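Consortium newsletter contribution from the modelling node. Members have asked for a concrete example of what our holo predictions look like. Here is one, prepared for the S-adenosyl-L-homocysteine complex that several groups have been discussing at recent meetings.
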Amino acid sequence: MRVFPASIPLDGRTIILAGSGFMADAKARLFVNSPARLKWFTGRNADPVPHDLAQVAEVYDREPTRSDLRGATLVFIAGGEPRFIDRLARRARRRGALVNVVDSPAESDFQVPAIVDRDEIVVSVASGGSAPVLSVDIRSAVEQVLPANVGILAGLARELRGTVKSVLDKFDDRRAFWERALRGEARDAALRGDRAAARRLMLKTLNEVQPEKTGIVHLVGAGPGDPDLLTLKAARLLREADVIVHDRLVSEGVLNMARRDALRIDVGKTKGHHPVPQEEIGDILVREARKGQRVVRIKGGDPFIFGRGGEELDVVRAAGIDAEVTPGISAALACAASAQVPLTHRDHAQTVTFASGVVKSGGPDADYETLAAPNATSVFYMGVGAAPQIEAKMLAAGRAGATPVMLVENGTHDNERRILTRLDSLADTVVRERVHGPSIIMIGETAALGQVTAAAQTELQETYA
Ligand code: SAH
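And here is the predicted structure:
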């Protein structure tokens, strides 16, 4: 560690800023939402001070005198002649202030880190002045994972700290309380921006002498496999889960985002072979939530697209357990993006339909009249085994044999394959290309616009080029 990121309380402190122009403005802006008093000495003939900053700073059109520097905690010097800078820095230090000469680490007592400001929670990223651009990029990454309203939560914690201490005198009890208050329903309310509800829930938690733990089941979409395609919310829920119930389709990369000590239950299904029957999955979700756990039921793609998410939700709700659903990027969307097949196109497809190649035995089939309509893209899930039937039914319903078909196997995974063929060769192509992995089959003129790794019928590309 080459620099130490200390944090300086700003309540009742005075900050001095000398200079004007955009660099001075940027420093002034750091303190806009702080309780510190900002005294800004622009000097004579200065650049104008932006209106919003003039509202919050005390602005003087001269240089700071010795007495101005008295009691200052931090002094920022933004520009000026070297002699002026030197003199001001010496005077400030003599009065006990720390000095920052903007853009000059060598002359500064401290550097300004890249800051994520969430009121009570402040994250600073420091590079010791050696790579500010890198710090800014890291800050952006942190901004994304830190919920916008986390400051509300920290503010409430500060407000209630005294009360909690007076109610719970054992350290362990207090810690248990904070773990619940800062991770449970109150936290959810605060992150939604509902401060009043969060406060009420925290106090309720405090009043429950022997609080009964209430669990929750989150039905979460894992996307197609590439962890980059996970939503920020899904990543957060994974990190916070006590129990993770997952499928075979959920990739290791996604599961690795979970806490190490979270309990993982694999209920993965392979086609025709169900290691854990659907009813039992429901039982597991209910059982774990009843223990007061935060259960994440994570499913490939989106939970509501051919994922039986609706059935699991029914079971959980029927047991009186709270359930929430977080969407994911469904395989059709991920595979279309990966193969660059626009699912709709003003010239070629006015509608897009998602269908399953496999239906419940004895249940109704998809409507092939609709699926075979012209000017439409039809996207099949679970279509590899059913390729001969899909081909036959689409042709019988009137779709032309030459209709382009894009098949994407293992979309977004390292072994992704994209194969372009035509409708009357679909079943043959699946056999010839030995397609076995999870695949999406897109049928329609738009399929020919995609990018392939293998064209089963190269003349097709020529036709549509
Ligand atoms: N809920 C999932 C679909 C589950 S059904 C979703 O929204 O994506 C399982 C089918 O999804 C597979 O048979 C296959 O058709 C498709 N699928 C899932 N992941 C896929 C991937 N990475 N590439 C191609 N198809 C995939």
